[in-house]
Amino acid sequence: MGCPICEAETVPKYRPFCSRRCADIDLARWVNGSYAVPSQREEDQDLPEEESPLPH
Ligand SMILES: [Zn+2]
User: Ligand 1 (ion): which residues have CB within 5 A?
Assistant: First the structure.
């Protein structure tokens, strides 16, 4: 298994990434909320608004 970003060989210091660059890219994905867990489908992220119990 390699880096999840660019699939290059990983470096122990930056595991599971190959470099700080890829680690930053992964972090940015989390921050942007666009990171999807591989086992989940994108459709699952679309929750119906009815699920919100409290009105704003
Ligand atoms: Zn990488």
Answer: 3, 5-6, 8, 18, 22
Tokens in use for 48? 């119906």
Cα–Cα dist 29/34, whole Å: 6
Ligand 1 mean position to 56 CA, how many Å?
41
User: What is d(CA 56, CA 48) in angstroms, rounded to the nearest whole number?
Assistant: 16
Q: What pTM does this model have? A: 0.53
H helices within the chain, ranges in order? 20-32
pLDDT tens by residue, 6-53: 999 999 999 999 999 999 999 998 888 754 556 555 555 666 666 667
Length of the chain: 56
